[in-house]
Amino acid sequence: MAKLIYRVVSACGALGYGYPKESLEAALVGRVDAIISDGGSMDAGPYYLGTGTEYFETEAVKADYRHMVEAGSRLGCPVILGSSGMAGGNRNLDLMVGIAKEVFAELGVTDVKVATIGAELDPETVIKEFRAGRLLPTGLGPELSEDALRESTIVGQMGIHPLTTALEDGAQYILAGRSCDIALFASDMIRRGIDPGLAYHVGHVLECGALACDPGSPSDCLVAEIYDDGTALFTAPNLARRCTAYSIAAHSLYEESHPQLQFYPEGILAMEKTEFFSRDARTAGIRNSRFIRSGKPWPWSIKLEGARRLGRRKVSLIHIDPADLPEIPDDVLVYGRNGVQVRPVGSSERELGLIVETRAATQEAAVLLASLLTHYLIHYGYPGRKATAGNIAYPLSPNLVSFQREDGSFGAIVPSGTRDPVFFANYPAIKAAVIKLIEDEFPDALAQASYEIVEADASAPAILLRTVERDVQKLELLHREEIDRLRKLVAFKPSSLLALDAPDAYAWSLYHLLQNEEVIKDEMFPISYFRANGADWQADGTTRARYFDIGETGYAGSLDDRTLSLIADAPPPGPAIGTHRLLDMAVVIRSKDAGINRLTFDIIFTSGENYEAALRSNVFRKESVAEILGLPAERVVGTFFVDSCNAIKISVDRPNISASVDERDVFGAQQQAAIEGLIIPIHAAALAKASAF
Fold it and tell me: Acyclic terpene utilisation N-terminal domain location, by residue (predicted)?
């Protein structure tokens, strides 16, 4: 019988999402070797790196971390947090350290060793690499310039070595800057001798918390158990969720541009031969994933992210009569026409803008309720949900604009939109459930502020105007000119909100790979140790990460992410015998950013029969997908088959860099409408080859 050798708890998808304390307590029953959570990502845009601020409410981050520290103190196990403060820059890390000191003081945590690991890099160092031609692009854009880099805050995504070093040196609590999500989980496993292929794959499943479950959610815990026979088992401590071979395999695709290859600082996770299996109704596992050392003299490739300020931003939200919609120029964003995508809605489609608006006596109360409403709206999981990466698309980063009204009250708005027909059908129930959640969990937020969710579509269009400029006076002039241009064409309804001051606009200035071993080893990821007694943290030395080789060499399989598992252009023999709506064939149809410059689409089918029918219809060949999405064929990175979970993955170059000034969907979570609307021809030959998962 296989022996348990390691057990790890993932608290949630990102610190601040929240999770039931009961789930964590259930997860802590039995052996616990580490409690880990990701603290953020670049998904929400460059603003948080550029400003050093937090995406989530401070109290939410503190509550989540408090539960982790409380458990770590009781059990004596490592507690690891990466990408601290959302973006993982020095200011973000300092913000999280301040929260940690408060938590330690409140819980009476004393005489513990804490490690902080920085992730920022001096822009001048990056400029030297740029001049030498040693920054490798990760896809299209952003275009590099010395001036932009010099103005930027720059971080590198650390791999496992800074984390393993801190653990080996005895740190119980680790607060790391920008981190590769998977490294947070893989580091301690690899330190303890667990196979890297298994460790990295386990990390990928755990990094989003219970999102890998059925039903999935980043606001809940997930547990992984590692056994000495090379298997890993996943269990949700919340009895309302279950892990299945299908859910684990499907999550292995999430946010990645290829279904079998994932690229990390130390090498490549290859899942071509991975086995996904179910142990029982609530537990599933993996085995046979492999981690490949990518080359010599060093495989290290540290992804650098840079954010720079573009300027101040003005926003107007203008409500108009539907009869006036044809008068609005095509380049203007209008919810009900082109608010979610640049491509206008077709005759058989609907676009719904959801504009959260709050009112309160204080700015804090207005912002809190607007934040809660939008957080629950985007992530609420409902029966039949197919777009599991997010229910709505945000055009702004940050997504919220706060302001003061003429009557002295404070307001906040969050514009968003969707084209998802499944969401439309469930929206009344979703809205009611969201309000009930806030009533139950944050009653004071509803007591101290009022709200309205304005629904904008072709029958009630809403225009979103955005202007960015560094010079304040010029910004006022330019935005006023945009307003005046539209006012000459149409009448504005009284509910319109004009010339609001939005948070400053930031842009990604860098998303490239650094491969200079000396810079990586000698300049990046400094580790500082502290002896902590409550809020009193006394410095206890510094060090650099200790590097060692990871993974196997001599791998005979394919590591080409442009050809492995590529769907061939193979016209089916004979005519179709019928058709099916893709919506009826798939359990998941989602889009999501895979970095700042790629979008990935996952279509996960309800059965092997439906998967084979779609795969062999030839609808998902590269040229066909380009036509469906309205893209040049060269912007389709690849369309891939995934037999392990009856799925098709599509990866494309993003039409723009995420969170650009013309953005419509920062997270890329609502770009799947054209795929959802597909009608798939069914061929007899495909049905004959069908095999259930």
Answer: 92-282
pTM: 0.94
Tokens describing residue 494: 């009284």
Residue 148 φ/ψ, nearest 5 degrees: -65, -40
Helix runs in 380-490, H state only: 421-441, 443-448, 472-487
Q: What is the DSSP string of 189-242?
A: HHHTT--HHHHHHHHHHHTTTBTTSBS-BSSS-EEEEEETTSEEEEE-SSTT-B
The whole-number average pLDDT for the span 81-100 is 98
Residue 134 in domain: no
Q: Are 683 and 573 in contact (CB under 8 A)?
A: yes
Range of the domain at 44: 4-119+159-264+274-288+526-543
**Rama region for 436: left / alpha / beta (φ>0; ψ in -120 to 50; rest):** alpha
Residue 486 lies in a domain: no
Collapsing DSSP to helix, strand or coil, 459 comes out as: coil
Per the CB < 8 A criterion, the answer to whether 411 and 405 are in contact is yes
Q: What is the pLDDT of residues 258-307, one digit of tens each?
A: 999 999 999 999 999 999 999 999 999 999 999 998 765 445 789 999 99
Establish if 667 belongs to a structural domain: yes
The last residue of one of the domains, among 440, 456, 472, is 456
Residue whose C-alpha is closest to residue 581's, from 458, 448, 421: 421
Do 539 and 582 fall into the same domain?
no
